[in-house]
Amino acid sequence: MPTPRSLILLLLLASPIFILLSHPSSASVSHPDLILPKVVNDIEAHVVVLTAANFSSIFAVRRHVVVDFYAPWCYWSRKLAPEYAATASHLADKGLDVALAKVDATQERQLARAHGVEGYPTVLFFVDGMPKHYPYYGERTKDAMVVWVSQRLVPEVQNVSTIYEAEKIITGHSVAVLAFLDSLSGAHSDELAAASTLEDNSSLYRAINFYQTTSPDVAKLFHVDPKAKRPSLVMLKKQEEVKLTVYDGEFRASPIAEFVSANKIPVITYHHHTGSRPSDI
Ligand SMILES: *[C@@H]1O[C@H](CO)[C@@H](O)[C@H](O)[C@H]1NC(C)=O
Ligand SMILES: *[C@@H]1O[C@H](CO)[C@@H](O)[C@H](O)[C@H]1NC(C)=O
Ligand SMILES: *[C@@H]1O[C@H](CO)[C@@H](O)[C@H](O)[C@H]1NC(C)=O
Hints:
alpha/beta; Glutaredoxin; 2 domains; five-stranded mixed β-sheet; four-stranded mixed β-sheet; 9 helices; about 35% helix; disordered C terminus; binds 2-acetamido-2-deoxy-beta-D-glucopyranose; repeat; protein disulfide isomerase activity
């Protein structure tokens, strides 16, 4: 049996070693929550907390990221929180390539300002970490948000194989994008699909439809020289007359989306101010 005195001595000797072992780095000293296991039934288990210091780290692991800029004191932010958490859990269960994150905008003022946040809560959608983002104006419920997020994950590119289909596009739509490809699947088709999800589909602009074809006859209808290099891409707009704009940049999602964005037709000019919803057009 050790005497009480030697026990105390032992404890005194061991404690600095224990402290050193349990705090291997200064980072874990200041963020003990990082080394603690998550509470299993934490309803916010699937909501990623972001700060200015680690904001961009999420884009390295997730292509699509939704960020809720909230204020802890704000009634609407608090009301959104459980719905947002439920949306995150639902999407995580489906295994979709999307992360739902939140930023305390009262702590991260600069970060919030950099993203044009003027009211709380502001929910933005990021694709490929692009500074492009789309504020959520819908109902702040789980069901509505699941639909909104899911829609943004689905690429919408339709195949065009016949002249008949192509003519319908030219006469039927006001804005369309057509890619002339070697194949309806593969790398170029994937880039086009990604560009279609980058497209801001807000009611401020007419919906833009994305198409792809391998048919030289279809390409010709869109004034693309069938002998032109593939991939090529053309944008069709109809105002008083049909206007075709040929894309000559790199065949990658982001620059294609930029091109489309720069060439589309606003339905009306709309003056943005905080908290208001663009009227349904
Ligand atoms: C970002 O930092 C905060 C505060 O330190 C931390 O709670 C959070 O888990 C971090 N997020 C990521 C994705 O590392
Ligand atoms: C874009 O808007 C159109 C028309 O409003 C809709 O049919 C389509 O599903 C939307 N696409 C996405 C990706 O949200
Ligand atoms: C277009 O065609 C490709 C290749 O056949 C196919 O994988 C893809 O599902 C088609 N897309 C649509 C929207 O039908």
